[in-house]
Specification:
The chain has helices spanning 4-14, 27-38, 46-50, 98-109, 115-130, 144-147; strands at 54-56, 63-74, 80-90, 94-96, 112-113, 134-143, 158-165. It has 166 residues and is of the alpha+beta class. The strands form two sheets. It has a five-stranded mixed sheet. A two-stranded antiparallel ribbon has the order 1-4. The longest helix is centred in the last third of the chain and has 16 residues, at 115-130.
Length: 166
């Protein structure tokens, strides 16, 4: 875990807390473990996730997986954004195992991100994995950096989309 717990200890001191008080003694280790989990997408690859789960299919109609929940951290403030991804693709002889689509969303969401790039990364990965005639990804998310700080707009939702091919 390198010195990630030590850095969290410094953050606690930096905001005026006492990292030695009872409730915070184990916080640096817990926070470091949580951050490693939340950024676990850096340790995954598209090949590892797909793992050969492409299946022959005569279907050439759009396949849509909606409402895939996602949790990510914005790269600007390291605060969460939470929402749903909707992924669609037009197969060309092969379909991707259903769970793999959600795993691809998670792989990219579990990295420090901006929503616009996350949307593109998912679309390009689905395209690469399937060779689809077309791919569409739409993400709708609420950003804690908009809700908890700065402009403090509680009901704002950001929508992004990427369309590739047909």
């Amino acid at each position: 875990m390198n010195d990630l717990p030590g850095h969290y200890r410094e953050i606690l001191s930096g905001v005026g807390e006492n990292p030695e008080r009872e409730g915070l003694r184990d916080t640096p280790q817990r926070a470091a473990k949580a951050m490693q989990y939340l950024c676990g997408g850096y340790n995954r690859s598209l090949e590892e996730i797909v793992n050969g789960a492409l299946f022959a299919s005569d279907n050439d109609e759009m396949v849509i997986v909606k409402d895939i929940e996602l949790y990510s951290l914005c790269e600007h403030h390291m605060l969460p954004f939470i929402g749903k991804a909707h992924v669609a693709y037009i197969p060309t002889g092969r379909v991707l195992g259903l769970s793999k689509i959600a795993r691809i969303v998670d792989m990219f969401a579990r990295r420090l991100q901006i929503q616009e790039n996350l949307t593109r990364q998912i679309a390009e990965a689905i395209q690469e994995a399937t060779g689809a005639a077309g791919v569409a990804v739409v993400i709708e998310a609420k950003h804690m950096c908009m809700m908890m700080r700065g402009v403090e707009k509680q009901n704002s939702v950001m929508n992004t989309s990427v369309m590739l091919g047909a």
